[in-house]
C-alpha cells in the first residue's frame, strides 16, 4: 500500500517560565532549538538590536569563533536565521560575532540565548489573528504569564492568569472575564472563523490549567466552552501540571549527553511545507502566523471531546438505498361477487379501528396538551424577552446589548433570522 511521506516534528507546547529550572541540559537544548525556530518564523518577535544579538548568539554557537579565512564578505547572507533578514541586521550580527563573542562555546551561547529570549514579551507566544470591539486588527498570544494582545509589534494589553476568572466563546467571539481595578469586566475578541475561535479557547484553557493549578487531580475532568446559544465544546485535560513537574525533579537516570548538530538552514534549501513554516500574512510585527491560523481544525494534540459533531455532508456522499416498491403481485380477481360482498365487512372493521383510534388519539392529545403547552409558553416568553432586550431603546437594554455575548448572538443569530423572516413574509406581500 503506497502512502505519502509523513513528517513528524518535535515541538514545545508549554514554554517554561524559567528554562534554567530544568534539571537536564538536553531539555534546555531542546527549548533552545524551539526558540531558534520561533525566531526564524517570526513568533519570537523582538526589536532590531535584540534580533541582531540573538542572531549573533546563533552564529557563534553554530560556526564557532570568527575566522577571516572562512567567514568572508557577507557570510550570513546565505543563512536563514531571522524571518526578516535585512542587510543592516546581517552586518550587525557579523559585527557582534566577530568582536564580542570570541572564545564562547556552543553551550555558553545557548545559555545566553535562553536568558535573553525568556524575558521577551513574545516568549512562548503563538499569535492568533483577532479583532477588538472597534474592528482593529490584533494578535492574541497565550503563554505562562496569561493572555497578551499586540497591535503590530506593540504590546497593547496583558491579562495575567490571576486576573482571568473565566474563558468562553460564542460563535466567532472569544471572551475573557477578568477583574481589573477590583471591577469585573468582560472583554471580547472576534476571530476569523468559528473553528479559529474554538482553537483559541482550547489553547487558552490548556495553558491556564497547566500553569495555574497546583495538582492535576484538582483540574476539572471536562471543561465546557461555548455560550448559552451555542452547542459548546468539551475539553478534557490530561497529564501533569507545571507545579507537579517542578516538584518531581528527582531524576535518577544519568544525565544524557547533548549531541549538537548544525541546524542552520541555507536560504536556497527547501523543506517540506508544515504548519509551522507556512507564512500566511506579511504584516508589521508578527509577520507570520504559522500555527494559529492553520491549526484551527478540530485535530488537536490534547484529548478533546467535542459535543459539536463535524458535518460530514461535504466529505461523505449520501448513500441511497434502492427502495423496492411493494405491489400485490399475487393478487388476481377471479370473480367480482366475492370482492363486492367483502366491502361491508371491511368497512365495519375499519369503523371499529377508527373509533378506537379516535379514543386513543383523544387521550394522547390531552397528554400532549399538558406537556406541550408549558413548553410552548416558555419558548414564547423567551422569544419575547429576546425581542425586548435586542429591540428596546430603554437605557438598561442598551447597556445589556453592549455585552460581547449579547452582541455576538445578535450578529450571528438574531439579525440573520430577522432578515429572513422579513423577506419571507413581509417582503412577499409588498412585492
From TrEMBL:
One of its GO terms (cellular component) is cell periphery. Keywords: Membrane, Transmembrane, Transmembrane helix. SUPFAM superfamilies: PH domain-like, Second domain of FERM. PROSITE patterns: FERM_3. It holds the Pfam family FERM_C. InterPro entries: Band_41_domain, FA, FERM/acyl-CoA-bd_prot_sf, FERM_2, FERM_central, FERM_domain, FERM_PH-like_C, PH-like_dom_sf. This is FERM domain-containing protein.
Amino acid at each position: 500500500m503506497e502512502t505519502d511521506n509523513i513528517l513528524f516534528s518535535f515541538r514545545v507546547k508549554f514554554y517554561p517560565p524559567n528554562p534554567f529550572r530544568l534539571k537536564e541540559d538536553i531539555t534546555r537544548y531542546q527549548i533552545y532549538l524551539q526558540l531558534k525556530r520561533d525566531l526564524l518564523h517570526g513568533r519570537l518577535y523582538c526589536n532590531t538590536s535584540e534580533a541582531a544579538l540573538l542572531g549573533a548568539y546563533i552564529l557563534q554557537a553554530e560556526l564557532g569563533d570568527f575566522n577571516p579565512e572562512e567567514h568572508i564578505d557577507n557570510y550570513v547572507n546565505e543563512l536563514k536565521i531571522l524571518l526578516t533578514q535585512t542587510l543592516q541586521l546581517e552586518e550587525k550580527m557579523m559585527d557582534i560575532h566577530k568582536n564580542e563573542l570570541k572564545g564562547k562555546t556552543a553551550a555558553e551561547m545557548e545559555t545566553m540565548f535562553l536568558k535573553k529570549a525568556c524575558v521577551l514579551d513574545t516568549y512562548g507566544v503563538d499569535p492568533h489573528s483577532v479583532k477588538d470591539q472597534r474592528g482593529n486588527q490584533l494578535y492574541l498570544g497565550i503563554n505562562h504569564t496569561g493572555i497578551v494582545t499586540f497591535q503590530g509589534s506593540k504590546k497593547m494589553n496583558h491579562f495575567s492568569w490571576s486576573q482571568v476568572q473565566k474563558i468562553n466563546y460564542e460563535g466567532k467571539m472569544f471572551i475573557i472575564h477578568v477583574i481589573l481595578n477590583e471591577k469585573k469586566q468582560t472583554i471580547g475578541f472576534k476571530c476569523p472563523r468559528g473553528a479559529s475561535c474554538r482553537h483559541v479557547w482550547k489553547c487558552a484553557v490548556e495553558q491556564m490549567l497547566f500553569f495555574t493549578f497546583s495538582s492535576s487531580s484538582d483540574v476539572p475532568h471536562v471543561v465546557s466552552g461555548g455560550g448559552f446559544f451555542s452547542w459548546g465544546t468539551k475539553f478534557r485535560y490530561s497529564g501533569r501540571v507545571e507545579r507537579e513537574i517542578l516538584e518531581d525533579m528527582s531524576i535518577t537516570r544519568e544525565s544524557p549527553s547533548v549531541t549538537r548538530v548544525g541546524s542552520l538552514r541555507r536560504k536556497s534549501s527547501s523543506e517540506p511545507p508544515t504548519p509551522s513554516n507556512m507564512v500566511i500574512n506579511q504584516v508589521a510585527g508578527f509577520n507570520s502566523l504559522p500555527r494559529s491560523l492553520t491549526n484551527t481544525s478540530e485535530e488537536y494534540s490534547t484529548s478533546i471531546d467535542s459535543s459539536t459533531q463535524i458535518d460530514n455532508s461535504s466529505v461523505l456522499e449520501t448513500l441511497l438505498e434502492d427502495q423496492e416498491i411493494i405491489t400485490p403481485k399475487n393478487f388476481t380477481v377471479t370473480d367480482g361477487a366475492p370482492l363486492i360482498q367483502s366491502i361491508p365487512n371491511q368497512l365495519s372493521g375499519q369503523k371499529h379501528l377508527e373509533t378506537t383510534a379516535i379514543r386513543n388519539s383523544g387521550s394522547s392529545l390531552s397528554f400532549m396538551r399538558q406537556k406541550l403547552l408549558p413548553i410552548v409558553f416558555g419558548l414564547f416568553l423567551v422569544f419575547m424577552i429576546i425581542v425586548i432586550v435586542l429591540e428596546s431603546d430603554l437605557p438598561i437594554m442598551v447597556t445589556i446589548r453592549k455585552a460581547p455575548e449579547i452582541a455576538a448572538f445578535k450578529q450571528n443569530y438574531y439579525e440573520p433570522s430577522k432578515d429572513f423572516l422579513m423577506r419571507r413574509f413581509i417582503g412577499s406581500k409588498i412585492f
